[in-house]
Specification:
Largest sheet: 5 strands, mixed
CATH topology of the domain at 288-458: Heat Shock Protein 90
Strand order of the largest sheet: 2-4-5-7-6
CATH architecture of the domain at 288-458: 2-Layer Sandwich
Shape: rod-shaped
CATH superfamily of the domain at 288-458: Histidine kinase-like ATPase, C-terminal domain
Distance between the termini: 53 Å
Number of helices: 11
Helix content: 55-70%
Order of helices and strands: HHHHHHHHEHEEHEEHEE
Length: about 475
């Protein structure tokens, strides 16, 4: 079961991606189907030229009235209303009625329930042909018969046109409603697709972000592990050298015993002491590395004489390296500073020791003190050593890191990291300016006092000194 736990977030991300993809697919398919339905509705709303029953019925009604008009004028003796004019009007009226009884117009008339009445009207008009064609001036009886047939025909055609028009309007209204629903569905599906797409993008973005964080964390862990292994290997090697010196000197003293002259005893004892100091420094670096990693550095600030602390660190360095040339210019420092004296002395000792180790023999190391505008302490440690390559300046304060210019020089890669950590515990910082082959300037800045409600355990960034 424990092995399956790391896979659970991965499974959840996979299911979330799969779900978002399925939703997008469903929305897209629905969108396509709705667009097809909308196109069908648009085709139904498209008018068909020459098949409008309303137009045909109106034309037939108009022809009925014109036929009656020419017949009345024929009976009244109008010379323009001759037999040919009557024949023409009658033929046009009959053709309009025939069109209404064929094809799609007939289907529309049937939908109104007037198709049988339309056939009866057509038969009645067709039966008037002999009387109409034999119509003569003064024939009032035939005129009355024509009026009795054509007036009802005109009213009937008007009724057909009205019913078809109302039916068309209802159908058009229904189609418009259907189209409106289809358009609304399309908008909803588009919004759904967009929302699902955004959800999928969010899932993918979060996955990618988590992957980047995991890769970066893994790379950091690998780098720290590599540096830690190098640190352990280097410390193990450096432990063997002073132990070998102590062992060889002790063996020689045991072998020669009282036969050893006092001068040689003093020299051998000095070597043992120097080797012991090296072991002590290595032990301090190792312990500092452990404290840094565990976050267990004790922090006990109080008012201190910062210049005296620096001078004490320099004196200790002279004992460890008698050939070191340390120049102290500390008059510009504040007289008192609120800090942890033990930690600050160790930080200064690390900076000074670092400068001495990487300086050529006989090259002086300058310690220059000043007071910041806010009343804090500023200490510059200036050396003329090997310097730091520009591409490695950003990593010089990383634990266990050693620049490529440090090859062949003993060290653990802990000193600078510890010094910066101490400075930031106080709300200050350590910075560096360096040029490869010319030397470096490390600057320690400490504020005059800790800010109110200071929390050194959670402090990771410096504040102004």
């Amino acid at each position: 079961m424990p092995k399956a736990a790391p896979d659970l977030p991965r499974k959840r991300r996979f299911l979330a991606t799969l779900g978002a993809g399925a939703v997008i697919t469903a929305f897209f398919v629905s969108l396509v189907l709705t667009c097809i339905h909308l196109l069908r509705l648009e085709r139904q709303l498209t008018p068909h030229p020459g098949e409008s029953v309303v137009w045909l019925a109106s034309q037939a009604q108009f022809e009925a009235m014109r036929t009656l008009d020419v017949a009345v004028r024929r009976v009244a003796g109008d010379p323009e209303a001759d037999e040919a004019a009557v024949q023409l009007r009658y033929d046009l009226l009959l053709s309009r009625l025939v069109v209404l009884l064929e094809g799609r117009p007939l289907l529309r008339v049937r939908e109104t329930g007037l198709s049988q009445a339309m056939e009866r009207q057509h038969a009645a008009i067709a039966s008037l042909e002999p009387a109409l064609l034999s119509l003569a001036p003064g024939d009032r009886d035939t005129e009355a018969a024509l009026r009795a047939a054509l007036h009802p025909l005109a009213g009937f055609l008007r009724e057909v046109a009205n019913r078809v028009l109302l039916e068309d309007q209802r159908n058009a209204a229904m189609l418009r409603q259907a189209r409106g629903r289809a358009v609304t569905e399309i908008l909803l599906y588009v919004v759904g697709v967009l929302a699902s797409g955004m959800l999928l993008m969010l899932v993918l973005f979060r996955q990618r972000k988590a992957q980047i964080r995991a890769e970066a964390s893994l790379e950091r862990e690998r780098e720290v592990s590599r540096l830690h292994r190098a640190f352990v290997s280097m410390v193990s090697h450096q432990f063997r050298t002073p132990l070998a010196i102590i062992d060889s000197s002790a063996q020689r003293m045991i072998r020669r015993g009282t036969a050893m002259p006092p001068e040689e005893v003093t020299a051998r004892a000095g070597k043992i002491r120097e080797a012991t100091r090296r072991l002590t420094r290595l032990m301090e670096s190792t312990l500092n590395a452990a404290r840094l990693e565990a976050g267990e550095i004790n922090f006990n600030p109080r008012d201190c004489d910062i210049a005296a602390l620096i001078r004490e660190a320099c004196a200790h360095q002279r004992e460890l390296a008698p050939s070191a040339l340390l120049e102290e210019q500390l008059d510009g420092l504040p007289t008192r500073l609120h800090c942890d004296p033990t930690l600050v002395e160790q930080a200064v000792a690390n900076l000074v020791s670092n400068a001495v180790k990487y300086s050529p023999p006989g090259a002086p190391v300058l310690l220059r003190g000043a007071t910041s505008p806010g009343g804090g302490a500023v200490l510059e440690v200036v050396d003329q050593g090997v310097g730091i390559p520009a591409d490695e300046l950003g990593r010089v304060f990383d634990r266990f890191f050693r620049a490529r210019t440090a090859e062949g020089v003993t060290g653990t890669g802990i000193g600078l990291a510890f010094a910066r950590h101490v400075a930031r515990l106080h709300g200050g910082d350590v910075t560096v300016v360096s040029e490869e082959g010319k030397g470096s300037i490390f600057t320690l800045r400490l504020p005059p006092a800790l800010p109110p409600a200071w929390n050194p355990a959670g402090r990771t960034e410096p504040v102004a000194a």
